[in-house]
Amino acid sequence: MTKCFYAKLAWSNLGKNLRYYLPYMLSCILMVTLHFVLGSLGLSSAWEDMPGSQSVYAILQLGRYVVEIFALLLLFYTNTYLIKRRKREFGLYNVLGMEKRHIGKILFWETVYAFGISIALGVMLGCLITKLAELLLCNLLQFDIRYALEFIPAAFLRTVGMFLLFALLVLLRSLWQIKKARPVELLNSTQAGQKEPRANWLLALLGVALLGSGYWMALTIRDPVSAMVWFFVAVILVILGTYACFVAGSVVLLKLLRRLKGYYYKPSHFISVGSMVHRMKQNGAGLATICILSTMVLVIVSSTASLYIGRVDILQNRYPRDLVLTCRHGGEQALSLMEEATNEALASEGLGAEHCLAYRYASLAAFVQGDTLILDESVSYTSVENVAGVYVVPLEDYNRATGQALTLEAGQALLYSSQEDFPKNRLEIGELELQVAGLLEEGLPNGNATAEILPTVFLIVPDWNTLEDIAAQVDAVNGEGACNILGYYCFDVSGSRDDQIRLYETLRESVRYRNDVDFVLESRSAEERDFYAIFGGLFFLGIFLGLLFFLATALIIYYKQVAEGYEDQLRFRTLRQVGMSRREIRKTIHSQVLTVFFLPLITAGVHIAFAFPMIRKMLLLFALTNTSLLIWTTAATYLIFALLYCAVYLLTSRFYYRIVSSNG
Question: Which residue among 233, 249, 325, 601 is the one 20 to 30 A from 296 at the CA level?
């Protein structure tokens, strides 16, 4: 036999098995396209000199790595369906005299054709889409739009090289599967897995326990830092629990349904329950994978969309006014110096200041133990969950900042805490004891507090001397200068965004020459581009990854329906021969879909509902405090995903029905 023979036979096989290869190749084309687009955008010169470009490059680089890892896993996963369906064909080749090395040559050429076509079409599609993606990204980031087309060879070479490597790995895996299988096993492979699984109560209960542990962790985490630390632990528990519940728990559930005579002894339910129990171990793993992928889509898209939509609120939380001045060792003199420098810059630019806010505070980190704030830094960070950032403000400054006329006796304090279980009656701070005279609904605007990842506590003390006493105790425990005493001065500018940036530059030069005070100057307008770059880039990446994960979900659903269709074909043909109508067969299919195939969508909704408190706390690290926005965004994401999910199922169930009702 000549090499040309194997190449021609492989091309013929590709055409004959197009119903299996076409979705596989379409998914490969889209993954090549996504990879090429992300690579091109990451190396593009479109925003080379724009503010925030480094953040964009880092986010796109991360996205490309995720696409590469997930593409390989998805190709391996879907290739399993292809090989399993074609093992009988390979077994027939083996019986007719072909050696396994000849079958290997056929697989080699099929892989060359499938990946060659996919890479070529994917790159061409990527070239067309890259410009549209660039325009979308520029719009999200509010960057200047560039209309020139740009082809980046480095992105092309990386994409082609990466997917050629994937093709090699997929081919080696397929060859290994063929090599280790005997001819008889190949011929009978389509009948494998027909033995009914036993109800594994132990694994089912373990799955429920793992899910319960992950849910409990998500609901009981108290602060954003703990949420970030334990998030991946909770995710692993939920993933393991999901697989155990779908693989073992679904078998237990279906066997329990058998005992419900009113439900089970109906033609549609009888066939669907019996059919699903028969192969539930394999189906359970596929359904669990669909559920996990669906949850990933919901979490990624809803979170990044919330950050992007709420970026204005986040920016205002981080920078309460247009311009913010902070100085160390902030006594009254420091506040006067900041106000003096500001007035000089305003006069120089012919602008005015509005909504001025000025106060002094001591900043420290403390370990919360009961009603005691432990000031020793070596103790404070032994447990992340109980560490708080404490901002001590004298009452005089608080009244001036809020326009109130509150009073406090010596030894009393007012308290605001973002921790619900923070002590609310009395506090011991070193040797100082304070009685909590009242609770505040919110603290003072402070971008530094927003930027920290620790829970925030504002402690309003009677006077400046009390603040200095607390600072002295911190310094005595941790060393001189351990407690920062700061002055905070911020104001809005009665001018345009350009006026604000111009004033920012002028004021920066003014405070630079005041060597007697250490100033830090921040501008909301100057930092706006960086914020938009980060949150716009994350939203753009969320859209891409959501598309990738949804593609994987749709592909797995398709192969699952096709594989089950061929496995059920003989069974349904027999039922038709004994008198079951096409209408009854269709009703049975719908019963099977409603009973089992919508479980991943429902379970993904349950997952996202239990994960919501933890996601909300993690987004607090980005200063997203608008919980209602996150709720509505998550609900809208789930609704849109559910509609797309239903559309995929309706489409694939038609393929399933055609297969099981055919005479093939």
Answer: 249
